């Protein structure tokens, strides 16, 4: 009796596993097609410069415009893209889009940030790809910041150091993203050619109600400044959180408090000067 029950459970479990891996295989196929058909778009999330009170930077965040399922956030496909190596092609697509926007950045005095994944830091051909972009328009790199998380940088620090040094030599800025979620020390990360520290939203959220969080935020911001880094706080959602980070002397603020990420057209209308930049819209 028990054996039969167990057996049935095992079969059900197998079927669930099979269904899951079939779904995964289907999704991989769809992701490959998405890359070939360029079914992606970039949303733009502005950053407020607290020194000038201007919006002169934005982070680009990818979305998958799935033919049946509509817009899919990165949480729905980046991990699979990393596991399959497809992220390399996605990163190249984002780089091409952002690089194509650098003439706009020059006209608008705008800087754009984009995300690299840990897999990109192990990609032996990425530097050459970036060198080719740079050769086509050498002034483009200085408008672009490449964001890497501390855990990505620490996965293979020597290889990451070599690539990031090469990218920095081309003129790209490098930012540490989601700082405070890993275990690495800022002193160690300082070996990388980093110019910006982005403090993760987990350190920011609710900081107005929690004295300990404020102490951690304050010392992180101070340490970043001591190391000569520009400091951004991510995930600022409420007025009270904004007041806390402003008083602690942060340089840039990003978060729903200022704006959610938005499609290019909306970003252009809200944050860019004039209307002549309509034609440069990527997707
Ligand atoms: P991230 O680089 O840390 O980007 C910030 C994420 O936080 C974005 O989510 C953004 O929408 C969200 N966010 C911004 N402000 C707030 C806020 O005030 N509250 C809350 N709760 N969330 C906020 P999104 O667009 O879903 O992206 C998630 C992550 O996916 C990114 O985190 C980044 O790690 C990754 N990602 C996005 N685009 C790309 C890409 O082009 N390439 C790669 N490799 N990864 C990407
Ligand atoms: Mg980021
Ligand atoms: Mg982040
Ligand atoms: Mg993140």
Describe this structure in words.
The chain is α/β, with parallel strands linked by helices. Helices cover 48% and strands 20% of the residues. It is built from twelve helices and ten strands. The chain has an eight-stranded mixed barrel, surrounded by six helices. Helix 8 links the parallel strand 6 and strand 7. Helix 3 runs parallel beside helix 5. The chain is globular, with a radius of gyration of 21 Å. The relative contact order is 0.12. The mean pLDDT is 93. The structure holds ligand C2E and magnesium ion (3 copies).
Question: Topology of this structure?
Answer:
Blueprint: H1 2-37, E1 40-49, E2 54-66, E3 70-72, H2 78-84, H3 87-100, H4 102-108, E4 111-115, H5 126-136, E5 144-149, H6 150-155, H7 157-169, E6 173-179, H8 186-189, E7 196-199, H9 201-204, H10 211-226, E8 230-233, H11 239-247, E9 252-253, E10 262-263, H12 264-271
Parallel strand pairs: 2-4, 4-5, 5-6, 6-7, 7-8, 8-9
Antiparallel strand pairs: 1-2, 1-9, 1-10, 2-3
This protein binds ligand C2E and magnesium ion (3 copies).
One magnesium ion is lined by residues 59, 115, 147, 177.
Organism: Limnobacter humi
Keywords: Membrane, Transmembrane, Transmembrane helix
Protein name: EAL domain-containing protein
**Fraction in beta strands:** 15-25%
Distinct compounds present = ligand C2E, magnesium ion
Radius of gyration: 21 Å
Mean pLDDT: 93
H-E string = HEEEHHHEHEHHEHEHHEHEEH
- Distance between the ends: 60 Å
Task: Say what oligomer this is.
Answer: single chain
The computed structural class is alpha/beta
Largest sheet: 8 strands, mixed, barrel
């Amino acid at each position: 009796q028990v054996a039969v029950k167990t057996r049935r459970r095992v079969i059900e479990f197998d079927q669930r596993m099979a269904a899951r891996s079939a779904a995964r295989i289907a999704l991989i196929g769809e992701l490959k097609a998405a890359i070939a058909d360029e079914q992606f778009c970039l949303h733009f999330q502005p950053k407020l410069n607290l020194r000038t009170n201007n919006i002169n930077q934005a982070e680009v965040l990818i979305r998958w415009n799935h033919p049946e399922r509509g817009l899919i956030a990165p949480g729905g496909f980046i991990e699979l893209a990393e596991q399959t190596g497809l992220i390399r092609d996605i990163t190249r697509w984002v780089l091409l889009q952002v690089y194509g926007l650098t003439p706009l950045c020059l006209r608008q005095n705008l800087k754009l940030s984009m995300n690299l994944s840990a897999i990109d830091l192990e990609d032996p051909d990425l530097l050459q790809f970036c060198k080719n972009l740079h050769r086509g328009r050498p002034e483009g790199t200085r408008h672009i910041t490449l964001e890497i998380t501390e855990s990505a940088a620490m996965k293979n620090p020597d290889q990451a150091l070599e690539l990031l040094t090469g990218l920095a030599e081309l003129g790209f800025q490098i930012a540490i993203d989601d700082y405070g979620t890993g275990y690495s020390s800022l002193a160690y990360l300082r070996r990388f050619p980093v110019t910006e520290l982005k403090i993760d939203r987990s350190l920011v959220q609710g900081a107005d109600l929690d004295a300990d969080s404020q102490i951690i935020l304050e010392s992180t911001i101070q340490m970043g400044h001591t190391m000569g880094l520009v400091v951004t706080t991510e995930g600022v959602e409420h007025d009270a959180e904004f007041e806390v980070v402003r008083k602690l002397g942060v340089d840039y603020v990003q978060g729903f408090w200022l704006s959610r990420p938005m499609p290019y057209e909306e970003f252009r209308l809200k944050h860019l000067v004039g209307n002549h930049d309509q034609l440069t819209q990527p997707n």
